[in-house]
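Structure tokens please, single chain.
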Amino acid sequence: QVQLVESGGGLVQAGGSLRLSCVASGRTFDHYTMGWFRQAPGEEREFVAAFKWSAGSTFYADSVKGRFTISRDNAKNTVYLQVNSVKPEDTAVYYCAAAPGYYTGSYYYKKEVYDTWGQGTQVTVSS
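Here you go.
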């Protein structure tokens, strides 16, 4: 019922910035928690950031706090991840995902609760 498409990835020099976009078709984000995850070669997919609309709350992995910002534009059905001060270890495929809005507690970092995923966009940081 909802499809997510990421864009905005690419090659960036260490210290630079990118803005990743995730456009949803079919529905708005009003009743969802939106998350960003990333996966590097040979690594597990890990939590990066999430935005819980119902609480107006954002959450970040310790590794990206102060550098990454998640936001959304409801009118455009789009969620963004602003990626600043990138480091080589930020190199990964970045995925956006949506979780049903009825979850409670600290669920946002668990990839298992997200039931809709985009195809991913590659971010490569040169060093």
